[in-house]
Amino acid sequence: MSIVVRDVHEHELDSVLALNNAAGPAILPLDAARLRHFFETAEYFRVAERDGTLAGFLIGMGSDAEHDSSNFRWFRERHPNFFYIDRIVVASRRRGGGVGRAFYADAQSYAELRYPHIACEVFLEGTNDPVLLFHGSFGFREVGQHVMPGTGIRAAMLMKELCSYPWVNATYGRDLPHVAWAAARQLPVQPLSARSTGTGH
């Protein structure tokens, strides 16, 4: 019954895509090309397994990423250094079972070694009070609101200060100890043709 959070594998992308597009209006839809782009570039792309089956995924990136999300740009225009949660999806049959909390604990453990803040947004359409409560219980606070161009969707923009970062940064900087739990994701190596022409994006 334990939850295992680990880096995504390439053969799981179809399952991740299906999970994303079955999540409902609280998550923007994805196509295969955009998901592939995340797989090739996102510094944090992990899945959760429970009882041997895929229970959800979380995609995140730092503030210097090349990411075209208007919500990401909103944060970057106002804050110089942060870790951004682009999306988190938990399979409907697994909601309320601790998968979301396992993801946020893991994402924070990763982010607080590298960034002073963690950022995300919650759509304010419909009744999203349980989602806001979930984030509030993790220490996120609203720092503004943003209406997404082309959709009219209003989002609460949330941030959390990562209090361990100043000590980690002062002690280690970017030279973190080589231990498994602190390791960054190894991005897949793209073919030379894709890297030189930009076709991998």
In terms of topology, how is this protein built?
Blueprint: E1 3-7, H1 13-21, H2 32-41, E2 44-50, E3 53-62, H3 70-78, E4 83-90, H4 99-111, E5 117-123, H5 129-137, E6 141-147, E7 154-161, H6 165-172, H7 192-197
Parallel strand pairs: 4-5
Antiparallel strand pairs: 1-2, 2-3, 3-4, 5-7, 6-7
Could you walk me through the main structural features you see in this protein, from its secondary elements to its overall organization?
- The structure is a single chain.
- With 201 residues, the chain is an alpha+beta fold.
- It has one domain: Aminopeptidase (3-Layer(aba) Sandwich), CATH 3.40.630.
- Helices cover 32% and strands 26% of the residues.
- It is built from 7 helices and 7 strands, in the order E-H-H-E-E-H-E-H-E-H-E-E-H-H.
- The protein has helices spanning 13-21, 32-41, 70-78, 99-111, 129-137, 165-172, 192-197, and strands at 3-7, 44-50, 53-62, 83-90, 117-123, 141-147, 154-161.
- It has a 7-stranded mixed beta sheet with strand order 1-2-3-4-5-7-6, sandwiched between helices.
- It is globular and about 45 Å long.
- The chain starts with a strand and ends with a helix.
- The model is unreliable at 195-201 (pLDDT under 50).
- Keywords: Transferase.
- One of its GO terms (molecular function) is acyltransferase activity, transferring groups other than amino-acyl groups.
